[in-house]
Amino acid sequence: MHSASEQSEAAEPPAPPEHAYPDHWEADVVLRDGGTARVRPITTDDADRLVSFYEQVSDESKYYRFFAPYPRLSAKDVHRFTHHDFVDRVGLAATVGGEFIATVRYDRIDARGLPASAPADEAEVAFLVQDAHQGRGVASALLEHIAAVARERGIRRFAAEVLPANSKMIKVFTDAGYTQKRSFEDGSVRLHLDLEPTDRSLAVQRAREQRAEARSVQRLLTPGSVAVVGAGRAPGGVGRTVLRNLLGAGFTGRVYAVNAALTEETELDGVPALPSVAAIGAPVDLAVVAVPAERVPEAVADCGEHGVRGLVVLSAGYAESGAAGRERQRALVRQARSYGMRIIGPNAFGIINTAADVRLNASLAPQMPAAGRIGLFTQSGAIGIALLAGLHRRGAGLSSFISAGNRADVSGNDFLQHWYDDPGTDVVLLYLESIGNPRKFTRLARRTAAVKPVVVVKGARHSGSAPPGHRVPVTRIPHATVSALLRQAGVIRVDTVTELVDAGLLLAAQPLPAGPRVAILGNSESLGLLTYDACLTEGLRPLRPLDLTTAAVPADFRDALAAALADETSDAVVVTAIPWVGEDGATEFGDGEVLAAALREAVASAPAPAKPVVVVQVEMGGLAEALAVATSTRPTAERGAVTRENRSADTPKDPTDRPHPTPAPTTAPAPPAPAPAPQAAVPDAQATLPAYPAAERAVRALAEAVRYGQWRRQAAEPGRVPEYEDIDEAGAAALIRDVLAGDHVDAGGVTLDTERAGALLARYGITALPTLPAPTPDAAVAAARRLGYPVALKTTAPHLRHRPDLGGVRLDLASEGQLRTAYAEITEVLGKPEELQPVVQAMVPRGVDTVVRAAIDPAVGAVLSFGLSGAASELLGDTAHRLVPATDRDAAELIRSLRTAPLLFGWRGSAPVDTPALEELLLRVSRLVDDHPEVVAVSLEPVVVAPRGLSVLGATVRLAPPAPRTDLGPRSLPRY
Q: 508: closest CA among 380, 391, 679, 654?
């Protein structure tokens, strides 16, 4: 494809003026195949790179670009394509290893298609992708970035001319999701794209992001060959330990040891050992780097120059060690990305993939976990070890495990992208000490939670800072608020790693409950009552416990459980068991296996739909172990990748399932095949029953499953963001522009005065009650005459605001005499008028005082909050939160989720208030903040909600220049 502005050299304007290099346009992107590329502006220093790049492009691609044979670039061409003003003429390049693999450029044009400057808002765009890199999604990524640049420079439309035979480039434009027009002129296809993002273009962008990032993780988890860089010649040491673990797990690909101290090829643990990756002479997909930090750059260069796809960096001495380490970490990420490689680490514990056709243990874990359906991500090696041990002890298997250390590149977000459509993973467990991109995490977690459970425990909740080595945005909202927002996104938030294992065990082994009704049965009345109380504490609806008495035998348990599973009045069953007394009076401790078999028999014969069953056992010898061992030992592949709720074991295999790569042929000596590791039994989901040593733990896990199941059902109908015809979005935008254009506005923003705040809110249908100042008694009387009696007299001094208990508010003043008396009393007791700043307001119908707020947090975005006004609610932290934009369902839940919500619905005989009016107010505030990112804070306090209608008595609005929204821009990895 070519640019119309290149058709006539005579029409070209004089050399453009120099502009500063826009380094904020630089970005690293993940491509369709999981590799990475660097996108950056083309500069005058790129002449040689451009020529080299063009020489590697086929004649056909050159013809498609210039519409004619164009074997080489002239000096004039090179000058033109490397000299830009970064405003009217811009060129971007995608690079790998410092060399160009693709270019894109735009030239601003006027209505006649000739070169132009602003205010012209159209540009001609043209691409060229090296043939070896076509099909990797490079052009699509470049289109996103050049479109963002164009919008920044005031360009609203792209025009492109493409030969009809150039179907790949036509598809790049048509699949982008932008509003477009298409015509056929003079033998070429003419395309016009409106660059304003649309719902479809954003959906396309995020779908491509998911596929690319998931693929980049899959490349790390399914290598065909692995090199351990830093494997020592003597036993012991980190590198040699990883080498031993790889071989002990039965890795199905090729394994190589790399040690720079070697002078010739030899063997370590039966595999080829060489001095460098270059010396291997065969493709290497994954390198595990276990050398001192100062030698890592050399190892990374060796890997990058010889086609390694990904790195697991176990080496320490990076950001966790201080300022010098942070700079070393930045350099590591930049170096790896320059070669198109992704990194797990540094300071990582490693990665594990239990799939039978991979069996990868590239970690410091000495034992390969059993294969299972749980994906586990941790940011701490120590916690990772504890979780692996805990899950193994409880009989739970893993699909994959990642301990990412400093997570300088690959993070939990990337693995959420992978696990979202990974057929081998049913449950996701995350231990996080920080969230690097909370907006993206919330978006990905919501999408993943819609198809499989996501359980999160967050460490470092109360330290006030991120752990060493973690780059995270600073948040101003409390941890409890973050937790509430995660729950809104469907995330199951737990507080400890024990609860993480408890919840994961149940969710991986049992179906989701259809509701909160819980049947309880067992051979101990006391344990049954403890379970009943725990259910009530967790908000469940327990049925009366069924006491089988201590004389019950396993057959009694089987029959009672079968009856409970067939009973339509319950949604889940808790079985409690203590050792029973035998015929000779001796306590039986060793019949756990018999009881486990009886319980499994009852579950196997239960009618559909299936109910979750959990077991509480106290000192029952062998019961927990027996429940964790299923009767089925079918391989994972036979069980199929199914969803527990609605797909059966004979569901056909998804045709989009990605095959694992096979090792590439090589002439290097093949290492001896390691002895295959024993294949662990794969528990059948319905045969494995989770067991807990305490009723509280079992019920807490069950309650999380109940709440998650309810969220899943509601997520199928998420509500809508209503449209209000009386909203004046354009008028609000004009008012905001006028305010922010004033000289008195600094970088921190400005708080609107009462008049402007009221005017802005009015544009969104929100009426704030007028407040008139009363600096003197006469002024108070004049204000009351203007508003009409009865009135309220209030102090507004900061130290008295929202403290009616101090006597600074007088209500229902029906005459001038009452007003003057109240004024005198207030100023006599509380201070002078200039200190109290008294105001007069008209009286409104009595009701419940509430508070509505919205604020922009740099970490999580716009948050809508609601609570009841008063010291008690503040002390108890009884405030609910939702992410903006809020739906009608969000608004209803926001009101009803407060502990004090009964006060709004007629508590103790009081009149219920107008909650529909309150919901509408919440939705209008949400729309205001969502439509105008310059509105960084809104506080409506108090909002008096009466049985009919509501009144906003106080309003504060703060404006500030909006921060850039990284989640709405083109795809890119975090900057380093």
A: 391
Q: Is the pLDDT of residue 246 over 60?
A: yes
For strand 310-313 and strand 286-289, is the pairing parallel, antiparallel, or unpaired? Answer: parallel
Nearest to 410 by CA among 422, 400, 402: 402
CA angle, corner 723, sides to 721 and 728, nearest 5?
Answer: 125
For the beta carbon of residue 151, count every other beta carbon within 10 angstroms: 15
Mean per-residue pLDDT, 671-678: 35
Specify which residues 204 forms β-bridges with.
none
- Note whether 200 and 194 are within 8 A (CB): no
Q: Could you identify the residue written with the tokens 């508070």?
A: 851
Q: Radius of gyration (Cα) for the chain, nearest Å?
A: 33
Q: What is the pLDDT of residues 438-473, one digit of tens each?
A: 778 888 999 999 999 999 998 755 544 455 554 555
Instruction: Give long-range contacts, CB 8 A cutoff, 24+ apart: 331-335.
Output: 331/297, 332/296, 332/297, 332/300, 332/408, 333/408, 333/409, 333/976, 334/976, 335/297, 335/300, 335/301, 335/304
pLDDT tens track for 802-850: 666 677 889 999 999 999 999 999 998 888 898 888 999 999 999 999 9
Taking the whole predicted model, whether its pTM rises above 0.85 is answered as no
Q: Which residues of 177-190 are buried (b: 16+ CB within 10 A; e: fewer)?
A: bbeeeeeeeeebbe
Cis peptide before 885 (omega within 30 of 0): yes
Report d(CA 315, CA 293) in Å as an integer: 6
37 within 8 A of 340, measured Cβ to Cβ: yes
State the DSSP H helix or E strand holding residue 219, giving kind and residue range, or none if neither.
helix 199-221
